[in-house]
């Protein structure tokens, strides 16, 4: 192994040691040497004699409801979302005379709030001296990526050219930042908790009972979500009936919407990918025979198999589920927490449990009530305009993402950040069914490196040293 490769390996090991010493976050000033994944030249992961031009991806992209939520800019750190919760009972008696004092009542309201979270990712250090290197004429930079590494969530920064990540260092590092943003935002939309540093509260803690006024901490039961517990019964098993639970949940929420005058409401049914696979397996038969034999336990219900298969096919191809004679769109989401035998003693090996959610997207014909808000970095332009010709930071995506260039002579890194939150403005129209158990034959791959079902492999630095002879060697 030549000295150049040895030096890069030592530099990468030093960076890893620094990352671990700082709890996973290196102290950032550009390193004096390149720490970015080498693409070509000595140690490059695509430096291989005879490498074909087409390079396939095996990266699992996260997906979820984030692609359906609008992004709304704001500069308010402590907002209030008001709801008229109802009217009190009257006090006093009916008057004997027309001009006497009559009973009176009061209107009541409740304010909700939201909190920003901040997510930061940086590229590794890129050395301009390294990026143009090729090992020899056999080191080709016309590689073509087949497949996608971004783009199922609408959460990643725009303008990232995935086709260039095999040949251009800076774009490769920027796309890696985009992958990290996409993964973390998908997770926090559901699992974010304010007890974790810089996280925003996710939908899992907002779709809940015990809602309170943001200013007085007064209970607001009129805003409580409908939360049901399936108690780890097997989906479509002999215990609790998923059709009964989900139809009742949707009926309750639709009833609220109608009686509150918020119709039409666009609802979404959201669950993990394998939960949807299992639900769509048994829903056609279970739904179409629900309550058919309640009067006579010995009654026989006949269904036509080809019709049930066709109904299942329609569910999966159109991503819809029929509940109470109405079709609802279904979103599968990797960010929803999944229980397993490692983190939950109620489950055996090979069993998993998670929640099924019903989320209101819009009310009264299009007003968003579940959406993303982001700190609009464009609003800083009045201040940054004084830094003309000295600006090393900029924004993209209509002010959603902020970027900064950190440079040390010819070495540089690019830092990115977003400050955002998910807002659920109508929790009384949201609900969930917790602890629904499934037992699939096999678990699918997961997009998160912390998961037992995540897979990557290969190398980030390749030994391409070869023996050579020269009079000076």
Query: How do the helices and strands follow one another from N- to C-terminus?
Result: HEEEEEEHEHHEHEHHEEEEEHEEEE
Task: Name the helicity range.
Answer: 10-25%
**How many extended strands?**
18
Pairing-aware structural class of the strands and helices? Answer: alpha+beta
Biggest sheet features? 7 strands, mixed
> What proportion of the residues form beta strands (DSSP E)?
15-25%
Descriptive keywords:
seven-stranded mixed sheet; 22% strand; flat; alpha+beta; 473 residues; 22% helix
Report on the structure:
The structure is a single chain. With 473 residues, the protein is of the alpha+beta class. It has a domain at 3-70 and 115-201 and 373-422. Helices cover 22% and strands 22% of the residues. It has helices at 3-21, 128-131, 169-191, 203-206, 242-259, 273-288, 305-318, 381-384; strands at 54-56, 71-74, 81-87, 107-112, 117-122, 126-127, 144-146, 226-229, 266-271, 320-323, 326-332, 352-363, 367-368, 370-375, 393-396, 401-408, 411-424, 431-438. The strands form 4 sheets. Strands 2, 5, 6, 14, 15, 16 and 17 form a 7-stranded mixed beta sheet that branches. β16 and β17 (411-424) form a beta hairpin. α6 runs antiparallel to α7 (305-318). The longest helix is centred in the middle third of the chain and has 23 residues, at 169-191. The protein is flat. The chain starts with a helix and ends in a 35-residue tail after the last strand.
List the helices and strands and how they pair.
Layout: H1 3-21, E1 54-56, E2 71-74, E3 81-87, E4 107-112, E5 117-122, E6 126-127, H2 128-131, E7 144-146, H3 169-191, H4 203-206, E8 226-229, H5 242-259, E9 266-271, H6 273-288, H7 305-318, E10 320-323, E11 326-332, E12 352-363, E13 367-368, E14 370-375, H8 381-384, E15 393-396, E16 401-408, E17 411-424, E18 431-438
Parallel strand pairs: 1-7, 2-14, 8-18, 9-11
Antiparallel strand pairs: 3-4, 5-17, 6-17, 9-12, 10-11, 12-13, 12-18, 14-17, 15-16, 16-17
Helix pairs in contact: 6-7
């Amino acid at each position: 192994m030549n000295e150049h490769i040895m030096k890069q390996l030592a530099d990468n090991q030093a960076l890893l040691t620094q990352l671990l010493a700082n709890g996973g976050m290196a102290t950032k000033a550009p390193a004096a040497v390149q720490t970015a994944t080498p693409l070509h030249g000595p140690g490059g992961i695509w430096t291989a004699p005879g490498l074909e031009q087409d390079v396939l991806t095996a990266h699992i992209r996260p997906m979820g409801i984030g692609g359906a939520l609008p992004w709304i800019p704001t500069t308010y750190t402590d907002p209030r979302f008001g709801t008229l919760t109802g009217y009190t009972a009257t006090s006093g008696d009916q008057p004997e005379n027309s001009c006497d004092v009559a009973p009176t009542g009061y209107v009541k309201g409740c304010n909700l709030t939201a909190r920003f979270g901040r997510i930061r990712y940086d590229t590794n250090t890129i050395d301009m001296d390294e990026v143009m290197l090729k090992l020899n004429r056999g080191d080709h930079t016309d590689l073509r990526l087949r497949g996608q590494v971004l783009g199922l969530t609408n959460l990643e920064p725009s303008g990232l050219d995935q086709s260039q990540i095999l040949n251009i260092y800076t774009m490769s590092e920027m796309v890696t930042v985009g992958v990290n943003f996409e993964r973390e935002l998908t997770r926090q939309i559901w699992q974010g908790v304010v007890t974790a540093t810089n996280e925003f509260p996710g939908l899992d803690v907002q779709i809940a009972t015990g809602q309170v006024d943001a200013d007085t901490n007064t209970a607001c039961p009129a805003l409580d979500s409908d939360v049901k517990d399936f108690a780890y019964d097997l989906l479509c098993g002999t215990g609790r009936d998923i059709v009964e639970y989900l139809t009742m949940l949707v009926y309750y929420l639709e009833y609220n919407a109608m009686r509150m005058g918020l119709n039409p409401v666009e609802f979404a049914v959201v669950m993990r990918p394998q939960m949807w696979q299992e639900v769509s397996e048994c829903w056609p038969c279970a739904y179409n025979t629900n309550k058919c034999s309640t009067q006579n336990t010995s009654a026989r219900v006949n269904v036509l198999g080809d019709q049930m298969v066709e109904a299942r096919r329609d569910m999966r191809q159109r991503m819809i589920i029929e509940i109470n004679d109405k079709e609802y769109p279904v979103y599968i989401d990797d960010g929803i927490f999944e229980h397993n035998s490692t983190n939950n003693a109620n489950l055996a090996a090979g069993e998993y449990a998670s929640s099924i959610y019903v989320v209101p997207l819009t009310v009264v014909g299009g007003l968003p009530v579940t959406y993303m808000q982001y700190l609009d970095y464009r609003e800083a332009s009045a201040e940054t305009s004084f830094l003309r010709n000295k600006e090393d930071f900029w924004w993209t995506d209509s002010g959603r993402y902020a970027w900064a260039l950190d440079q040390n002579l010819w070495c540089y890194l690019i830092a990115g950040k977003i400050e955002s939150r998910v807002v659920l403005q109508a929790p009384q129209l949201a609900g969930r069914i917790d602890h629904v158990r499934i037992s699939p034959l096999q678990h699918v791959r997961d997009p998160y490196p912390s998961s037992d079902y995540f897979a990557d492999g290969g190398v980030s630095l390749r030994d391409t040293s070869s023996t050579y002879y020269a009079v000076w060697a």
